[in-house]
Amino acid sequence: MNWKSWMLPGAIFIASGCKIQYPTEKIEYKVESQDVAEGKRLTMLVCGSCHYNFETKDFSGKRLEDSPKFIGKIYSANITQDPERGAGKYTPGELAYLIRTGVSRTGRLMPYMHRPNMADQDLDDIIAYLKSDDAAVKPSVRSAGKTKYTPAGRLGLSMMKPGEYRNHSIQKPKEDKVMLGKYLVDNLACYHCHSKSFASLDPLDPSRSKGYLGGGNKLRDASGKKIKSPNLTPHITGILNWTDAEFRRAITEGISKDNSVISYPMPLFPELTEDESSAIFAYLQTVPPIKRKR
Questions:
Q1: Is 28 within 8 Å of 93 (Cβ atoms)?
Q2: Nearby residues of 193 by Cβ (< 8 Å), 6 or more positions away
Q3: What Pfam families does this protein's entry cite (predicted)?
């Protein structure tokens, strides 16, 4: 038997043993801040790029077209209040646990929902919004589709580990512009796509992710064409010559420095205030520059 004849069965055997289910911890979580309007803004910023469906105008999920094909077909979850198809059965504690650790109420690992460094007030406002009567989170039985991982995708997912639930207070650095920018880069997950690879991200300390913000991560555009994420570091191959205004236009309107349209899967963040986009830009000027091919 040559190596080709056992490679696929071997991969399937390995993948079948990959762990993507974890025990959950039941926690008591009291929502202190309940600013629903701010919660909606934050939910669009933090969750919208994956979970908001612009056709149905709600958080019922969609297919993530930019996912590399070797991973499989990936669909984001319905996070409306439907108790069966959505997140209606989640308690505030289960929502907090999911967002802080990446583990759902059923124990399933959802690593890209992992926001271990989110401030308490932002977390509270998001939970308050998800439990509100806003039309975008009202119960929807719609399912975007069933995620089907390939053996390679399942293996890759199993290599990502859930975070530890840290039961201490986290405050948003509102007074320090650069640190606010760092906070936003973390919680908007800019570093997910704009670092070297999804496989080498460090959610607890994003700056330790391989190729942090230097781009090069392999994605797909709307037509399925392979592309690499741009460099966001202060290098000539990145945003060294950009202005604050050019950066804001890019991330809120989708127009690049050279007036070209920024392609999918880059989401737009029109909900960002000028102070917030300026803080992100200020922080990006402080990260180590990385040289990338244009």
A1: yes
A2: 217, 219, 229, 265, 266
A3: Cytochrom_C (PF00034)
Number of domains in the chain: 2
pLDDT for residue 124:
97
Other C-beta atoms closer than 10 Å to the C-beta of 64 total: 19
Residues 36 and 122 in one domain: yes
pLDDT of residue 167: 80
Q: Are residues 81 and 183 in the same domain?
A: no
Please check whether residue 192 is in contact with residue 115, taking contact to mean a CB–CB distance below 8 angstroms.
Answer: no
Pick out the chain residues at pLDDT < 50.
Answer: 1-17
Percent of the chain with pLDDT strictly greater than 90 = 68
Cα separation, 90 vs 272, whole angstroms: 28
For 205-226, letters b (16+ CB in 10 Å) and e give ebeebebbbbbbbebbeeeeee
Helix (H) / strand (E) containing 40: helix 36-46
- Domain extent, residue 195, equals 177-284
Which residue bears the tokens 């690992």?
109
Instruction: Establish if 237 belongs to a structural domain.
Output: yes
Domain assignment of residue 12, yes or no: no
Task: Tell me the two tokens of residue 123.
Answer: 């977390």
